[in-house]
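User: Just a sanity check before I run the rest of the batch. Below are the structure tokens for the first item. I only need the designed sequence back.
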């Protein structure tokens, strides 16, 4: 059975992410595993009485969560794991160990704070994860399904890689996939590359029988244009590529991805390009 990993620090933000993960799991018939990370201690340290007490307290919190959220998971199993180390390393390590197909984590956005570790570790979880990561804001209200997804396509080869995972997700939810052609500047050669990628996207989606529509946006503020489009179209999920790159040709790598993650009120599906 598939598995979804959720980063939990017991904040309302992380519990909202848990609800979101359960919604996805119910459509995938997947298990959900919650991960809490002790980021204050070292794996080499011998547990003190105080540390043992903290871990017992965390287990108690998790047992309460299991009682409250367990019945919401229709087909799969809700479980938890306590780990020690750097948050982003441990969340990624658990996802790799379980061969998870998705990580879900919350974020406090640009107005975040350091009291809880979920918000401050979000971007590092994304860049270290072995699988796609969904980031959801605690203010985002959602139902029991995903009806619309948007996938921006630019001029890079990596831009097409989002299609495989995103289209499968769209099929599971029987959702509409909005393919957004992004033209950052009116350069003929660049526009041609975007058009070629759009043609490839259309061919792939047609062959895989995914419901989709193609739209176009031209703007110097590409992050703002994407979020504005997603908001106006009442999109439920934005899919982007997020690997840090050395090229300036892709508008959704590195800093732009960070801006989308920080500013999007809509959940963001982050997919790293293959090396």
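Assistant: Here's the designed sequence for the first item:
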């Amino acid at each position: 059975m598939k598995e979804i990993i959720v980063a939990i620090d017991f904040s309302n933000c992380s519990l909202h992410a848990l609800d979101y993960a359960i919604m996805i799991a119910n459509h995938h018939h997947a298990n959900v595993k919650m991960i809490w990370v002790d980021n204050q201690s070292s794996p080499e340290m011998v547990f003190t009485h105080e540390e043992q007490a903290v871990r017992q307290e965390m287990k108690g919190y998790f047992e309460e969560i299991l009682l409250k959220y367990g019945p919401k998971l229709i087909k799969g199993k809700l479980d938890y794991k306590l780990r020690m180390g750097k948050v982003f390393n441990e969340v990624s390590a658990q996802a790799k160990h379980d061969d998870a197909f998705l990580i879900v984590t919350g974020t406090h956005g640009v107005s975040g704070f350091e009291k809880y570790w979920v918000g401050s570790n979000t971007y590092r979880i994304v860049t270290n994860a072995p699988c796609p990561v969904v980031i959801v804001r605690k203010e985002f209200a959602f139902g029991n399904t995903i009806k619309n997804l948007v996938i921006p396509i630019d001029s890079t080869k990596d831009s097409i890689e989002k299609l495989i995972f995103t289209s499968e997700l769209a099929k599971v939810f029987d959702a509409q996939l909005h393919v957004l052609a992004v033209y950052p500047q009116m350069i003929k050669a660049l526009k041609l590359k975007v058009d070629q990628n759009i043609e490839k996207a259309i061919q792939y989606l047609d062959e895989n029988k995914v419901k989709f529509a193609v739209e176009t946006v031209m703007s110097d503020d590409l992050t703002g244009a994407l979020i504005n489009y997603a908001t106006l179209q009442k999109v439920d999920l934005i899919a982007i590529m997020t690997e840090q790159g050395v090229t300036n040709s892709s508008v959704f790598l590195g800093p732009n991805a960070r801006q989308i993650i920080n500013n999007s009120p809509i959940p963001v599906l982050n997919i790293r390009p293959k090396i």
